[in-house]
Amino acid sequence: MTTQSALVLALGSVLLTSPSHAQTNNGVGEGGNATTGYDMAPETRLAVVQAAVDAIKTPLPPGPFQPTWESLKAHYHVPEWFVGAKFGLFMHWGLYSVPAHHNEWYEKHMYAADRQWHAEHFGPQDKFGYKDFIPLFTCEKFNADEWAALFKQSGARFVIPTAQHHDGFSLWDSQVNPVNAKNMGPKRDLIGELGQAVRKQGLKFGVSNHGIENFQFINPAPELAAQLQSEHADLYDPQWADFYHVADRSDAACEKFLVDWYNRNVELIDKYQPDMLWFDNGVDIRYLDPLKLRIAAYYYNRAAEWGKPVSLSTKKAAYAPSGKNTETIGSIIDFEKIGGRSPAGIRTGVWQVDEPIGSTWGYTTGMRISGPGPIISKLVDTVSKNGTLLLNLSPQKDGTFAPQIHTTLLAIGEWLRVNGEAIYDTHNWLQFGEGGERGAKSPTIRFTVKGEALYAIIVGNWPAGEVNIASLGSNESLTGDVKAVRLLGRPDACAFTRDAAGLHVTLPATLPGKYAYVLKITGLKMNPAVNDPSGNPL
What we know:
Elements: H1 3-17, H2 46-55, H3 69-75, H4 80-85, E1 87-91, H5 106-110, H6 115-122, H7 144-154, E2 158-164, H8 190-200, E3 204-205, E4 207-209, H9 222-231, H10 241-244, H11 251-272, E5 276-279, H12 289-306, E6 311-315, E7 331-336, E8 351-356, H13 372-384, E9 388-393, H14 403-419, E10 433-434, E11 444-450, E12 453-459, E13 466-469, E14 480-487, E15 496-499, E16 502-506, E17 516-524
Parallel strand pairs: 1-2, 1-9, 2-3, 2-4, 4-5, 5-6, 6-7, 7-8, 8-9
Antiparallel strand pairs: 10-11, 11-12, 12-17, 13-16, 14-17, 15-16
């Protein structure tokens, strides 16, 4: 038996003997976000996908990766920079930021449920279609260096903007897609500018591409479709056929679309050398595997040339041919939104969850924006379960952020400057926390581990006088004894006693900050991180 295998068995025996660990690695294996079914991928067949792969003219770069699951499994390793990062920033910014209505799926809604709203505010669809938002997406106040400085101050370790959303508008200087931000709208390479600025701040820079969902994203109301078709307008204007993908959804059109999707990703990879390439739900379907394997091999061989560790990140079982996201190959699993879709308990291995800072992913007028308290709570909870929080931001059409987003990010950064020791480069303890049940009087506490230090993070209101950590009672099956307790942000040690009821810590009267408070506890024997190069739970 290898040392790694012995460690896994030892940890597993501990987890199974404690009722607090009943949800460890459970409930999130089959398909991930609730289902493995159709999820906005082009509704096509394997034969069409294979024809697209055969039609690709760009050769694979030389390197160890071949477009097979066996090759990906043999050569892929989760990047170390990601394992310790724990906090990154995502963002949804594009043409949908101009109408700023409903959500980032405005293009879909304006031809169906919201067609009357659109007509009243911008004009009828035959006179003002989605394409007509392009000149209005000017981003005139966008300053990449100011954004990057804000991101650095937030404490994030990596940044992933949406290079292209479901609407097919590319935010980079593209030779593949003429409908892009350099040719039209802002007349700027938004991705290029941002990538340069972010890396100047010492942060990792990735890109997300939701473009696979573009082929059948728009499904107009029948009467509107008939009108536009009869007038050869907007959705049925031949000049915009490759932007909308409504007039022709034949096998030949789908094959062309899939080749184009591949070429756009190759362009993103070669031009910007992203540290992460993030795909949305649309790539989940199994019949897309030949295309997904090809782009993975291209990306990883390029990264080998660059000499830098990179990774794909995908949802559900996109890169898990078994259909179980606990058996992912060559990709970091991403869960959409905390609660319901992300792990309810500890999930060993490497994973992340993308969570919006507000009530919509893209900016909308009047959207609710979370304050720092709820976001810090979500960050702490995610990290205690061994995950990484990818916080989505919502820039406005002019390239600025709402003041509340600024305030929240700066407050998160201030909190992390004091308490980041309990977040960065940590891993889960034997249980993720205690308390937090609705109506409970005991405080919400979450645990993380670094080296031989255990961090107990008290989330929410400051418990005056004393806090009891029941999980650290003297009758618990823990090795060692508590030697010292210190509150991060204060130099002096905290007095404590320990008995069967728990670890009783006397807290100072002065608050060391806001939102959450960290006790650093030493003396107990800590469990080591349990990671595998694949990123899968063990």
